[in-house]
Amino acid sequence: MIILGQSLSNKKSKLGEFLVKSSNQKMSLRFHRRTNSSFESFSSTDMLKLSGSNSPTSSAKVSPNKSQESFESKQIRDFSSLLSSPMINITRIRSISWAGVPSRFRATVWRLLLDYEPANQSIKKSALEHKRNDYFDCLNRVYSETQKKLWTSALKATQDQILRDLPRTKDSRFRSKEVQDIFERVLFVWAVRHPASGYVQGMNDLLQPFFYVFLNEQYGINSIEELSNFDDKEEKLREIEADSFWCFSKLLDGLQDLYTRDQPGLYKMMEKLQQVVARVDPELANWIEEEGIQYQEFAFRWLNCLLVREFEMPLLLRLWDSYLANSAAIANTHVYVCAAMLTKMAAVYHLKGESHAEFVIKIQQAEAAAWTTTDMDEIIAQAYVYEKMFSQAPAHFKNSNSLPHFPTGK
């Protein structure tokens, strides 16, 4: 549970105004973890030490006596050493990725974490070429002008839904026609290959981080508009498109029940989120229940889109570093991250005293640009503590009869 060390003098209407640090308005966040029957208090610096010493990143822990710059330098050295090996140690890569991946290595590391790029570097080039060609072969089989004439009404409906969603893509850098065409192809091919779920609204958001990372890898740029001066633009865009498709596919392989009919996985995650909040902050959970607030009202987008719409791209990529470090357990980790985010926002906003409407509005109107790197580190660290707390005490989830269950739409 997060508590506010020093209350703010004036209640603001947006999260950004609460998070602004100034000389006369500072917040000291302290975190709590349960030890037996009581909570032990420790600061955000202690939290980073805890997550470093007990998490998968034990060798990448942050000492309170070292600056963030020193930590980042160590991360760069560690990744550089590991990635220069002819046979990359994936276990070690997963371990240190939990604490964040330097941007210069992120594309390679994400491909490795998602088992798309082989650890054996002697076959890397041929393996990636083979997978990229596979994607375009599949694209030609389902998306050529000849094939479009043979589309069923279901396939036409899929394309229509994708085309309706793409203009709503959060980041304006992905709204150019060239990018939208790439996204349309990737999402359509994925939908054809996964008929059990097909395309589901929100999947376009999950594609953005991959496209951004691979674009940045190829050119060191952040938007496609900067590509005009490159001679090999078409070839590189093909690689970016194929890599985005395969990594997007690998991500969704572990999240399939979030998007199948009635989205059973999503409602399981929402129920678990409610259970976690009830245990780590009973006062907040009770207040939410008393006000008649449904978790769907504020958490549906968080869970469905992996927080893509809640953070600016640099912080989102930092969060996804931790997610992909243990890609087989993203759904589980994501619940704890959402719980940590909710308890933090409740403390900063003083949400327990707000009306039903104000509670939901303030969460929905939180500005992505207001969050800082420190905020993200604290959320990830708190989520780690929550996850460890419950993994060591699974009985917490056994007695949930008093908690309402979410409808599955069946």
TrEMBL record:
<feature type="domain" description="Rab-GAP TBC">
    <location>
        <begin position="100"/>
        <end position="327"/>
    </location>
</feature>
<dbReference type="InterPro" id="IPR000195">
    <property type="entry name" value="Rab-GAP-TBC_dom"/>
</dbReference>
<feature type="compositionally biased region" description="Polar residues">
    <location>
        <begin position="46"/>
        <end position="68"/>
    </location>
</feature>
<dbReference type="Pfam" id="PF00566">
    <property type="entry name" value="RabGAP-TBC"/>
</dbReference>
<protein>
    <submittedName>
        <fullName>TBC domain containing protein</fullName>
    </submittedName>
</protein>
<feature type="region of interest" description="Disordered">
    <location>
        <begin position="46"/>
        <end position="72"/>
    </location>
</feature>
<dbReference type="GO" id="GO:0005096">
    <property type="term" value="F:GTPase activator activity"/>
</dbReference>
<dbReference type="InterPro" id="IPR035969">
    <property type="entry name" value="Rab-GAP_TBC_sf"/>
</dbReference>
